[in-house]
Design goal:
four-stranded mixed sheet; Dihydrodipicolinate Reductase, domain 2; alpha/beta; Rossmann fold; 3 domains; 15 strands; nine-stranded mixed sheet; binds nicotinamide-adenine-dinucleotide; globular
Length: about 450
C-alpha cells in the first residue's frame, strides 16, 4: 500500500531476496501511474505480476488477494487508514515510520490493534544498522553504568535536508513536521537504547533557512512554485531536475498527470509550514533526560550522541553520505571513516571501539531489518529490535508533544496526549540505583 520510493525496498526485498517464502500478491496506490510502474517492476524482478488496485479499492484488494501481511508505505498522514482497515480485515500489518502523525490517529491504531489481536510492526530500520545495535550492546553491558542523561544532535545537510522542503513532507498535515516525520527515528533509538518510556517534552523550533526571505538573501528574485518551471534554475543551488533522472522522471514526473502532485516544489515557497531548526528537552520514566536537536540545513549529515552514565560516558558519531531520496544508489550510507564509538570511564583513559559495519541502505540497516521481517526461522534477538505499535507510539508521541509544546509554549506530558502510554518490550538494561563501588584512586 503506497508505491513510491520507499515501497521499492520491500518490493525488491520480497521479489529478489525473500522470494522462496514471500510473495507480493497485490499493489495499491492513489496514483494509477505508480500502480502500473510497480507491476512492471515485478516483471523486471522476474516475479509473478500482482494485480493493481486504486486506493478506494483497498478493501476489495484485501478480499480478493487475502494477504497475510499488509505493508503500508504511503504518505505519513494516510498510514492509519490502511493499518486500521487491514487489521479490521484480519491481516497483520507492517508500517513505515512514523506510525502516524497525531495523537488521535495513534489512539485509533492502538485500540484496533488491541481489539483485533493482529500483529502491528513499525519498521524502525535505524535500530538494525550495526553501529546503532553496537551502541545498544555497550549500554546493555553496563560498562558506563546507568544512563542519567543523553545529548543527541541530528544534522541534515542541504542536499537531503532540503529535499523534505520540496516534497509532501513540507506540510504538517501530511508529515507532522520533522519532529514527527524525521525525529521519530531518533526518539525511537533513544527510547530503545535506554529501555525507557518518555514522559514529557518541552520544545522550541523555527524555520529560518527554507523561507522566501532566504531566496532573496541568496540573490534570487524570490520563491517560485517548482523547479521544473523556475525562471532562475541556473542561479539556484537547490534546483532539482526531475527530467534529467530517468528514475525520478518515471516515478514522479510521468505520474503527475494522474493527481497533480509534484516532487520538486521550491524549497523557499511560502506555503511550507514545517520547521528547519528544532530543539527539545525530554524526560523519561527512568529519570533520564534527553537534550535533542535537529537541524535541516547543515554542512554535513549524520549525528552525534553522548550518553552520560554513572560509570562513564559513551560517545557515538556517524557522518553519513550525501543523498537525495531516490537519486543515489546508497541511501544514508556511511561515509568512509564516518563512524566513531568511544567509551570514557569516569576516572580513567577513554578508548576508541572498532565500529560494527555492514553494506547497504541506511547504514546496512534495511537489509538486516528485511531479514528479520521475512526470514522464516531466526535466532532470538538479544536486542529486541523488532518494534511494534507500542514503540511506534512512544516515538511519535514525543514529536507530537513537541509540536504541542511549540503551540502552547509549555512542557507537555505524554499522558496528556494518550492517558496510558504503552510500555514497549525492551532488553534488560543495567539496574538503576544499583550499588556503585567508587574507584579507589581519588582526584
Ligand atoms: N525508514 C526509512 O528510512 C524511510 C525512508 C524513506 C521513506 N520512509 C517512509 O515511507 C513512506 C513513503 O515515503 P516515500 O519516500 O516512499 O514517499 P513517496 O512520495 O515516494 O511515495 C508515497 C506514495 O504514497 C501514495 N499516496 C499518497 N497518498 C495516498 C493515499 N491517501 N492513499 C494511498 N496512497 C497514497 C503516493 O501516490 C506515493 O506513491 C513514508 O511514511 C516515509 O516516512 C521511510
Amino acid at each position: 500500500m503506497g508505491l513510491g520510493s520507499r515501497h521499492e525496498v520491500y518490493q525488491d526485498g520480497i521479489e529478489k531476496v525473500h522470494a522462496p517464502w514471500a510473495e507480493l500478491v497485490g499493489v495499491c496506490d492513489s496514483n494509477p501511474g505508480r500502480v502500473e510502474r510497480a507491476r512492471r517492476r515485478s516483471a523486471q524482478n522476474g516475479a509473478p505480476v500482482p494485480p493493481g488496485y486504486a486506493a478506494e479499492e483497498f478493501g476489495r484488494m484485501l478480499q480478493e488477494r487475502r494477504p497475510d501481511i499488509v505493508i503500508v508505505t504511503t504518505v505519513d498522514a494516510a498510514h492509519h487508514e490502511y493499518l486500521i482497515g487491514a487489521m479490521e480485515a484480519g491481516c497483520d500489518v507492517i508500517t513505515e515510520k512514523p506510525m502516524t502523525i497525531d495523537a488521535e490517529k495513534c489512539g485509533w491504531i492502538l485500540e484496533v490493534r488491541r481489539r483485533t489481536g493482529r500483529r502491528c510492526r513499525v519498521a524502525f530500520n535505524y535500530r538494525y544498522s550495526p553501529p546503532r545495535s553496537q551502541v545498544k550492546d555497550i549500554l546493555m553491558s553496563g560498562e558506563i553504568g546507568e544512563v542519567l542523561s543523553v545529548d543527541f544532535h541530528w544534522l541534515l545537510n542541504t542536499h537531503h535536508g532540503a529535499d523534505y522542503f520540496r516534497r509532501w513532507h513540507a506540510q504538517k498535515k501530511y508529515s507532522g513536521g520533522l519532529f514527527v516525520h524525521k525525529a521519530t527515528h531518533h526518539f525511537d533509538l533513544v527510547n530503545w537504547w535506554l529501555g525507557a518510556v518518555p514522559t514529557s517534552v518541552m520544545a522550541t523550533a523555527k524555520r529560518e533557512f527554507y523561507t522566501p526571505e532566504m531566496a532573496h538573501r541568496r540573490g534570487l528574485t524570490g520563491a517560485h512554485e517548482r523547479c521544473l518551471t523556475c525562471p532562475e534554475q541556473d542561479r539556484c543551488g537547490f534546483y532539482l531536475d526531475l527530467a534529467a533522472s530517468p528514475y525520478l522522471k518515471a516515478l514522479y514526473l510521468d505520474c503527475e498527470g494522474h493527481d497533480g502532485y509534484f516532487r520538486d516544489g521550491c524549497v523557499f515557497r511560502g506555503e511550507i509550514d514545517i520547521e528547519d531548526t528544532m530543539n527539545a528537552l525530554i524526560t523519561y520514566d527512568t529519570g533520564a533526560t534527553l537534550s535533542y536537536s535537529l537541524n535541516a540545513f547543515n554542512a554535513w549529515e549524520g549525528c552525534t550522541v553522548a550518553f552520560n552514565g554513572t560509570k562513564g560516558r559513551l560517545e557515538h558519531t556517524i557522518v553519513e553520505s550525501v543523498y537525495i531520496n531516490g537519486v543515489e544508489a546508497v541511501q544514508g550510507g556511511v561515509a568512509p571513516d564516518g563512524v566513531k564509538i568511544r567509551v570514557i570511564p569516569l576516572r580513567g583513559i577513554g578508548r576508541e571501539i572498532e565500529p560494527w559495519s555492514a553494506a547497504g541502505d541506511h547504514g546496512g540497516g534495511d537489509r538486516v531489518m528485511l531479514e528479520d521481517i521475512f526470514l522464516p526461522a531466526q535466532a532470538a534477538d538479544k536486542y529486541l529490535r523488532a518494534a511494534d505499535e507500542r514503540a511506534g507510539a512512544c516515538s511519535i508521541l514525543v514529536g507530537i508533544a513537541a509540536n504541542r509544546s511549540l503551540e502552547t509554549g509549555a512542557r507537555v506530558r505524554l499522558t496528556d496526549l494518550i492517558p496510558a502510554v504503552p510500555r514497549p518490550d525492551y532488553a534488560p538494561m543495567p539496574a538503576r540505583n544499583g550499588i556503585l563501588p567508587m574507584p579507589v584512586r581519588s582526584i
